[in-house]
Please model this.
Amino acid sequence: QVQLVESGGGLVQAGGSLRLSCAASGRTFSRSAMGWFRQAPGKEREFVTAISPGGGITSYADSVKGRFTISRDSAKNTVYLQMNSLKPEDTAVYYCAADSLGRAVVTGYKRWDQYNYWGQGTQVTVSS
Model:
């Protein structure tokens, strides 16, 4: 059982930076791949980035590669999303997700339906 609590969203200017945090509880965190997805109003959920349980493997959507960085701190049971050079098209609700069943890795961590725990979401708004 994993509970995810997100924080760090807000309003920033284009070109600015923001760091999102996702604090996880539950003994399965260390064995769970962690991902970030985002969803804009009227749009489907979109993969952003993910990290393997040990932190050695990361994956990024092409749209954020080079700008966003995912990391995890096993001691704090927390995963982070550092977002730099933000663009208006990054505006969305950002969700933290955990896969405790080892399914997401099979498809490169990109499918939202292969994560079994989700945070409440945090709004990120980037003004032009």
